[in-house]
């Protein structure tokens, strides 16, 4: 069982490792992390997930990823939880980026003496495309937009959605999944249809507008210019939702 003292100890150790590389950079990073982690609307678990998403998308799978995994472990986030997150975001980050993170996570597990967690294989019917595929899990408005683009791309999107829907059942909440995919949009600056869909998913999953805004506040540490553009997109989308309510 982890405690706040455990988390504090790991935070100090992480800070010391960064400061040993460059003391002034350590001061800057420490102040930035303290400010970001003070965002009250997000849980520590959600903050760890957003850090890992940033590491995959940046990509920064060396020391930053290791420090974030260690911070997660100190806060009760298991490597099984992180694996479920990586499976989830592979859809949006791309499989090569997620695979690199999985490989790095395995290295960290080995270094810390953590056994690789077991996982149930996906049902075969979820892996099919074409006429034998399971029903589309996509909302009708989203699927209609995809069909207008390309039939093969629509099949690909549906395949990813079916697999992602059960990539971590009982592990990641709807809110956590929505915040993670929102963050991928921020890092990749895909701030139109997909960002709006992910914001809507978060709101539909019980998150408030303040909670959604907190995601961008936390993500500012990973690049203020990207966050700036995301704020413009989010504020415009929320205003549009309010106008049509």
Describe this structure in words.
With about 240 residues, the protein is mainly alpha-helical. It is built from twelve helices and no strands. It has helices at about 5-20, 25-35, 45-55, 65-75, 80-95, 95-110, 140-150, 150-165, 175-190, 195-205, 210-220, 225-245. α1 packs antiparallel against α4 and α5 runs antiparallel to α8. It is globular, with a radius of gyration of 19 Å. The termini are far apart. The mean pLDDT is about 95.
Summarize model confidence as the mean pLDDT. Answer: 94
Segments where pLDDT lies below 50 for 5+ residues?
none
Question: What overall form do the CA principal axes indicate?
Answer: globular
Strand portion, in percent? under 5%
- C-alpha termini separation: 44 Å
Q: Could you describe the largest sheet, including whether it forms a barrel?
A: none
Output the number of helix runs.
12
What does the radius of gyration come to?
A: 19 Å
Count of DSSP strands: 0
| Class of secondary structure makeup | mainly alpha
One letter per element, helices H and strands E, the order comes to HHHHHHHHHHHH
Instruction: Estimate the helix proportion, in percent.
Output: over 70%
